[in-house]
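Entry: Transcription initiation factor TFIID subunit 5
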Amino acid sequence: DRQTLVAVLQFLRRSNLRESEEILRREARLLGDDLGGSAATVASSSPGVAAVAAVPPGKGETCTGAVGSLPGAGGRLLPAGRQGTFRDAGSQGSALVGGGVVVEDQPDVSAVLSAYNQQGDPTLYEEYYSGLKHFIECSLDCHRAELSQLFYPLFVHMYLELVYNQHESEAKSFFERFHGDQECYYQDDLRVLSSLTKKEHMKGNETMLDFRTSKFVLRISRDSYQLLKRHLQEKQNNQIWNIVQEHLYIDIFDGMPRSKQQIDAMVGSLAGEAKREANKAKVFFGLLKEPEFDVPLDDEDEEGENEEGKPKKKKPKKDSVGSKSKKQDPNAPPQNRIPLPELKDSDKLDKVMNMKEAARRVRLGPECLPSICFYTFLNAYQGLTAVDITDDSSMIVGGFADSTVRVWSVTPKKLRSVKTAADLSLIDKESDDVLERIMDEKTASELKILYGHSGPVYGTSFSPDRNYLLSCSEDGTVRLWSLQTFTCLVGYKGHNYPVWDTQFSPYGYYFVSGGHDRVARLWATDHYQPLRIFAGHLADVTCTRFHPNSNYIATGSADRTVRLWDVLNGNCVRIFTGHKGPIHSLAFSPNGRFLATGATDGRVLLWDIGHGLMVGELKGHTDTIYALRFSRDGEILASGSMDNTVRLWDAVKAFEDLETDDFTTATGHINLPENSQDLLLGTYMTKSTPVVHLHFTRRNLLLAAGAYSSQ
């Protein structure tokens, strides 16, 4: 209105801000001292420039300083006055920011300017929010589902803004009025939020700090976005528009709006969905070519089979060829993309053994389900917190809450340590069975206990060659143990907080760890410092897994996302969202193309790594899924849960006929078949044992493990 305009112009003149005064005059089409323009002409100034308008306030009415921010607004606007902040419109295409403020009849300059202050009138927040809510709920069905995604991030940001600006009672009433409208999968976050009632509380809360600094991603079709933008600008609802501009990243796609089911499948993580760009990078998901070497021709096979996976140490006969010479997989990374350790003779022997076992492997399928052998830890009053089984299924390790690591032999062959140095010097090093002779029979036992950690052990992992064992603990360290001497070789210190998981690379030498400090680290056994630090998750990294080709690492987190990282350069190449709770298990399919993930929401989600898409959802479990494993040829996916069951799923059927056309990849219109029941091949209950680990032997027998719980 004219009075306001005059006041602003006078203020600018008094402050010697002639340039700005001129700009404003030109905008308002007021030349010289003729101040005959009106607010209407101001508001309809040329597009591409931020328009400033003010509504004439009545006595005690609210004056919402309308700030139409039009994309592409360039040039400098009014420089910052003392009371109100004006930001440069050239930066983000957003213009002046403002909110409402109560003004008396005579417009006071400072009151007018503070209308454009960062925070709006606290008493109006509820009105803004309910206005938007009403608009969205009354919009067409096709837009409603997409625009409803705005409710949660806006609710959080408006609440945090009220708390931050110390309007505690308004914040409380805002929370109480609208928290019930949010989706059920945000309940845990809302519980954290409800405890933040003072500005001081916000300082220490990392999750909420992240929420303020990282942009919440919403994927919305262009039509829905235009509708929203038009509404906010017509209503001059700047407070909400500012939050949209500042704290949300709206990933706009061209095409049909997504349905409620399509959106529900993908949302639920701490920072919204993944930007589509995040899943565009090329991923080499193929397998590396197996090295070629001679396989001994073996007439007396039975003799070599005394226990599973422990070959008799005899020299291979040289006259044979049995190498599986596969052609290079077109999707595989170059063989030397990352340096991998050389194969030792013992590794070659083990590969030979593996091939022989594979020849006797059972072909699984819906008609031929695996037998399941369940290892129950009885009287585990120390609190079983982690389990791993060697690839050849000869040893099993448990990590316990009393900080011990216990290794058992599950074959008749006992665990033995190497002899002392004095005894070793007496051995004839040329003899054929030197590997047997160095072992000290006096130390043979079924169980070895490893002491060293000073807190619960949350993750354990055997090296592929069975010479080493990793364990990670609440004490912030990862320890490497020798399985020759059953002593600790190294303690890796890098995490300052509990380490939740660790795993050896399928080729040995490298290993990964993830913890409460929200990063995953890549290590090599001979380096004290990590080689790579993978940072990006917004909450604890709860589980880690190597891709079968060792070039990538998947991490699952309490921020409800799964990320895939490139070992070569440390980049994040995939972000998968869709789980509604922290992720606790990951499994790659043996061919490297797919990833299965399990979480506290009781769902198993299936992902196509190459296209970066969710391709399936397996529902059935009623509690957290702690174990996932594909059978050796990838026909069956086994899942183990806190609900005391092991479930088997038809992986072949789940991954066939995938619709991964370019359109789906571009827009994320995923249509998940509701076929969990068709894919479920069997459910196996334990008496009262949560399933912590699953492992397929080389012949496809399924081993499961957990500790019996009496309650």
